[in-house]
Amino acid sequence: MGQEDARGPEGESDRADISARRASGRPLLLRTAGIAAGYGEETAFEEVSLEVYGREVVSLIGPNGAGKTTLLRCLAGILPLRQGRVEKAPGLRMSYLPQRLVFDRLLPVTVAEFLSLRLGRPFFRPAWPEGERVESLDELGVTSLLDRRLGELSGGELQRVLVAAALAKRPQLLLLDEPATGVDLLGAAAFDALLHRLRDRDGLGILMVSHDLHLVHHISDWVYFLNRRILASGPPKEVMREERLAAAYQRFPHPG
User: Fold this and answer.
1) d(CA 144, CA 125)
2) Is 169 helix (H, G, I), strand (E, B) or coil?
3) Residue 111 CB: number of other CB atoms within 10 A?
4) Helices assigned H by DSSP within the chain
5) How far is CA 154 from CA 96, 105, 147, 181, 221, in A?
6) Domain spans in the chain, listed from the N-terminal domain onward
7) Are residues 181 and 159 in contact, defined by beta-carbon separation less than 8 angstroms?
8) Which of 241, 238, 181 is closest to 215 using CA atoms?
9) Could you tell me which residues come within 8 angstroms of residue 129 by beta carbon, excluding any fewer than 6 positions away?
10) Which phi and psi (to 5°) does residue 245 adopt?
11) In the list 6, 44, 231, 250, which could disulfide-bond 38, CB 3.0-4.6 Å?
12) Is the confidence at residue 12, as pLDDT, over 90?
């Protein structure tokens, strides 16, 4: 895959940061070049060029309606592109975790049965099938939930189950859309620790959409500021400046 600079209307991202990122030795998993998509005659985003490397957490931030969820859905192959191209590392395995799972909460489906459906094969307890390179169910806090019905789970519990299902596919790249939605403070701390383990121990690349700027500032290696186009990209401390956030959000949600 070729190399292209990330740009925005405010000028090029700092060249030293870009060069250091590309010289880090981490494998390039995915690159987009000038992609655009939308619904009907409406354009959700356009001219988006970005990169995601292994052993890296990349965050997409921006106001509501900026095109972030649509972008993830395009990268997951759910929605078609209108233009541009997506380049992936050969044999790249991706898993996509949507912002919310829509299902009938009255269905008598247990967590173990749900995982079996997502895996496409019987789910054996208490461990994953031999050879699966994923976090253990204990580490994800899912073991105690296996006999519970899916509709009985809290937001944080359901999110952990969805992460387990996504990781069971042994991805190299994980696409997360608002993963902290419905998670309490204790669950948020555990999720933060999980992201660190997935990146640092398992070497996954993670592309995450989040409105939680505290989480983004703390966990991200690289941030893309999207509002229909990429307005800025770089390390969190460079992208998440007060004046830039205030202009986009009409207020300043301090990242900490």
Assistant:
1) 11
2) coil
3) 26
4) 15-22, 68-75, 111-119, 137-140, 155-167, 185-200, 213-219, 236-239, 242-249
5) 21, 11, 14, 11, 30
6) 1-54+67-91+219-249
7) yes
8) 181
9) 121
10) -65, -40
11) 44
12) no
DSSP character at residue 143: G
- Position 133 pLDDT exceeds 50: no
What are φ and ψ of residue 93, in 5° steps? -105, 125
Amino acid at position 51, single letter:
E
* Residue 162 contacts residue 127 (beta carbons within 8 Å): no
The β-bridge partners of 176 are 97, 208
57-89 burial code (b ≥16 CB/10 A, e <16): bbbbbbeeebbbbbbbbbbeeebebeebeeebb
Say what the pTM is: 0.81
- Cis bond before residue 253 (omega within 30° of 0): no
First to last CA, the chain: 36
Q: Which residue type, as a one-letter code, is found at position 108?
A: P
Pairing of strands 222-227, 229-234: antiparallel
| C-alpha pair distances (Å), 59 with each of 6, 210, 254 | 14, 7, 16
Q: Smallest Cα–Cα separation from 159: which of 185, 134, 178, 143?
A: 178
